[in-house]
């Protein structure tokens, strides 16, 4: 019996692209009974145009702002046809999720559509030239924040938990087994689910493509990106750290932070530590 291959070889993403790696694992878990929806974004490279697609399952590129709305319509149509076993999945970047697509996403969650929405977060509009998004972290260089972004990133996870989403999880392409487990969990949810995937980007973050796994792992191990899931409002940390790695190792590994002073890096590192323990505390609430 041939093994299911959900995404063809030879995709023209950037060298070291974590988004593509995660997509291959995602579709392997979801299986052939899946419809993929992507907006114009880095993931559009996977979906292509017309018949020119890398997916081996049905796929469609929506408007940038409307992937969750398209997903809602596809879900309703499938349910009317009695095809409730088909997964409907939105795979979108941070710009198309936290910014331009937020209204459609919030609406899909409010209506309770059984939709899996995965945001691969590379922390900027990478596909159009590395412009800042609301997911860009404080201090990071982008082409529209050449001196470093001012202000913290948007707390999309807290917003969706407050809206009452049945299942939300964070994940990292550098901890792929954790991501795979969360995709498998999302498939069983009778309602909307959201997975926020940290996706290291060598092109936009300015590091050697061979370092993608290490840079993504550093974000988790220093507490900057906490791996957890929220089931009906109940938090569970899926990777607890006995001790935090120095966050300075993460910042100095990337060219987008090279303009920061040591004092600024120390301040961001302190914020990371506070953020990690704040999530751990929610688990015990």
Shape: globular
Q: Write down the CATH topology.
A: Rossmann fold
Q: What is the residue-averaged pLDDT? A: 95
Strand content: 5-15%
CATH H level: which superfamily?
A: Thiamin diphosphate (ThDP)-binding fold, Pyr/PP domains
Terminal CA distance reads: 48 Å
Features:
Rossmann fold, 38% helix, 8-stranded mixed beta sheet, alpha/beta
Description:
With 285 residues, this protein is α/β, with parallel strands linked by helices. The protein has one domain: 3-Layer(aba) Sandwich (Rossmann fold). The protein is built from eleven helices and eight strands. An eight-stranded mixed sheet has the order 2-1-3-4-6-5-7-8, sandwiched between helices. Helix 1 crosses helix 7 and helix 3 packs parallel to helix 5. The chain is globular and about 60 Å long. It starts with 17 loop residues before the first helix and ends with a helix.
Short overview:
By secondary structure, the chain is an alpha/beta fold. The protein contains 11 helices and 8 strands.
Set out the fold topology.
Layout: H1 18-30, E1 34-38, H2 44-47, E2 59-61, H3 67-80, E3 87-93, H4 95-99, H5 102-111, E4 116-121, H6 156-163, E5 167-172, H7 176-186, E6 193-198, H8 202-205, H9 212-221, E7 228-231, E8 234-237, H10 247-252, H11 262-283
Parallel strand pairs: 1-2, 1-3, 3-4, 4-6, 5-6
Antiparallel strand pairs: 5-7, 7-8
């Amino acid at each position: 019996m041939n093994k299911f291959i959900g995404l063809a070889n030879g995709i023209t993403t950037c060298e070291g692209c974590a988004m593509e790696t995660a997509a291959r694992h995602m579709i392997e878990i979801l299986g052939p009974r899946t419809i993929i929806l992507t907006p114009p974004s880095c993931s559009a490279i996977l979906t292509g145009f017309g018949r020119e697609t890398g997916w081996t399952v049905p796929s469609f590129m929506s408007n940038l702002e409307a992937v969750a709305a398209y997903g809602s319509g596809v879900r309703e149509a499938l349910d009317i046809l009695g095809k409730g076993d088909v997964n409907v999945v939105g795979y979108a970047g941070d710009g198309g999720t936290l910014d331009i697509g937020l209204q459609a996403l919030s609406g899909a969650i409010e209506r309770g559509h059984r939709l899996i929405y995965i945001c691969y977060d590379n922390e900027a509009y990478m596909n159009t030239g590395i412009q800042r998004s609301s997911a860009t972290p404080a201090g990071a260089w982008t082409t529209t924040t050449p001196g470093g972004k001012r202000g913290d990133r948007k707390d999309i996870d807290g917003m969706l938990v407050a809206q009452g989403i049945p299942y939300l999880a964070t994940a990292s392409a550098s901890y792929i087994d954790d991501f795979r487990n969360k995709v498998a969990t999302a498939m069983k949810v009778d309602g909307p689910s959201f997975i926020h995937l940290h996706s290291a980007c060598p092109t936009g973050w300015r590091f050697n493509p061979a370092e993608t796994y290490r840079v993504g792992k550093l974000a988790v191990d220093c507490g900057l990106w906490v791996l957890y899931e929220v089931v009906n409002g109940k938090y569970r940390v899926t990777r607890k750290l006995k001790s935090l790695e120095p966050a300075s190792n993460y910042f100095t590994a990337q060219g987008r932070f090279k303009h920061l002073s040591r004092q600024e890096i120390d301040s961001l590192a302190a914020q990371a530590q506070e953020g990690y323990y704040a999530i751990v505390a929610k688990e015990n609430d």
